[in-house]
Amino acid sequence: MFECVINISEGRDATALAAFARSAGASLRDVHSDYFHHRSVFTLINDRGSLIHDVRSFITAVMATLDVRHHDGVHPRTGVVDVVPFVSLDHDLAGAVTLRNDTANWMIQNFPVGVFLYGPAPSGPTDCSVVTLPGVRARARRHETPDLAASVIDPRVGISMVGARDLLVAWNIWLSGVSLAAARELARTLRSTSTRTLAFPVGDFVQVSCNFVDPLNARCDLILDELIRELPHGGKLDHCELVGLAPRAVLRTIDSSRWEQLGLSDQGTIEYRLEQHNGPADTPRGH
């Protein structure tokens, strides 16, 4: 069983997002959209054959519709299909790498797109180096040549980041009464080898965005407690939100009395969505 957590550069057009959701077929388990980021995260989970069919259908729909040149959200992006990570839920990283490589090659053969690869190096099993998503984003900002590319890259669709990685939990903290500069300082304070952080302006609020690359050890309750201790005078916690799905094991590390404060619930776990056999909630989550 594999997961693919596709980040696209659209978070506002409900009609387009509904069409994209339909294109993802039975693999779709969750949709999270954000107006200010102008970004949506579609979580697809299925066996290898069904997943790759639905991933390709979804990417085809997005590539045919969106134009990254008109994007104005606060989240950094390089393409309409911005990030495509594959995750094995059965600890088969080699299988996720194969899905990554096959998908990247299929993309450049079918669309005028460039692709950066991240995760284990593509040169073979004896190469132990790992490329991170922040690393390939930095390469894109420097306008380096993508790892793979069509003969012509259309600026309308841009550059995609296609990866293979372990489980990751994405989680946001919304704050009021805090300047963007102060939020960036909070993000730096919380950052570690297991927690990647950024700060964004989101309407009347600021947001500290966290990616837990070691989610069983980088607990969001402890992160929130640290942030609250460091809040500047007048700053207040508005709410927290999970982006995408989390493994049930992550919730088990946290006292259930705090789940509501942290924006967590069993309904937001990978296991719950697979048990339901009916895909995501009826409407996208997010703001």
Give the topology.
Layout: E1 2-8, H1 14-23, E2 28-34, E3 39-46, H2 48-65, E4 81-88, H3 93-110, E5 114-120, E6 130-131, H4 133-141, E7 148-149, E8 159-164, E9 169-176, H5 180-190, E10 195-202, E11 205-212, H6 220-230, E12 236-243, H7 248-252, H8 259-262, H9 270-276, E13 285-286
Parallel strand pairs: 2-13, 4-8, 5-8
Antiparallel strand pairs: 1-3, 1-4, 2-3, 5-6, 5-7, 9-11, 9-12, 10-11
Q: Tell me the series of helices and strands, N- to C-terminal.
A: EHEEHEHEEHEEEHEEHEHHHE
Would you tell me the structural class of the helices and strands?
Answer: alpha+beta
Q: CATH H-level name of the largest domain... which superfamily?
A: Formiminotransferase, N-terminal subdomain
Helicity level: 25-40%
Under CATH at level 1, the class of the largest domain stands as Alpha Beta
Average of the residue pLDDT scores? 93
What is the CATH topology of the largest domain?
Formiminotransferase-cyclodeaminase, Chain B, domain 1
Q: Judging by the overall fold, what is the CATH architecture of the largest domain?
A: 2-Layer Sandwich
**How does the major sheet shape up?**
9 strands, mixed
What does this structure look like?
There is one protein chain. This protein has 287 residues and is an alpha+beta fold. Helix content is 32%, strand content 28%. It contains nine helices and 13 strands. Strands 1, 2, 3, 4, 5, 6, 7, 8 and 13 form a nine-stranded mixed sheet that branches. A four-stranded antiparallel sheet has the order 10-11-9-12. A hairpin with a 4-residue loop joins β2 (28-34) and β3. α1 (14-23) packs antiparallel against α2 (48-65). The model has no long low-confidence stretch (mean pLDDT 93).
